[in-house]
Specification:
With 173 residues, the chain is of the alpha/beta class. It has a single domain, classed as YbaK protein. The N and C termini lie far apart (42 Å).
Amino acid sequence: MHKSRNDLFDFFDDHGISHSTVEHEPVFTVEEGQHIKASMPGGHTKNLFLKDKKGQIVLISALGETTIRINKLHRHLGTQRLSFGKEDLLFETLGVRPGSVTAFALINDVDTRVRMVLDKALFEHEIVNFHPLLNDATTAIASEDLLKFVRATGHEPVIFDFSELETAPPDTV
């Protein structure tokens, strides 16, 4: 059984993670959420659910403006080439649907199948914003509390500087 938004907020409270949430119409892309960014301070995020051919699952949470070169990332993470994970695997492991992918969905990965990769640039912001399991609200927490949350779910995050991929050599076949 997947956790609800209230379960998530209870988890935050139980772990001393301060949070505030603004409800809004559902948003499915970073662009659709531009008006929300204007009213909420902090770093706003995009989240990618990826997997490789060997079944390794990777969740990336990055600043919305960060460029993520998926075709180069596998070398840095020690995986096979990554592609977007299927919707059924997303729901099975994280309990969310496309458009609602969020770091907070790690609360549903009780088997710790998902590898969490956090954009180093997130930590340039005191506050970071994510959907609280559905894309009809945005929840703000301290960036340092994001690390606390990820670890409390049993995951050890990889903090990665995606700008390194800008200068990486082109992919070879």
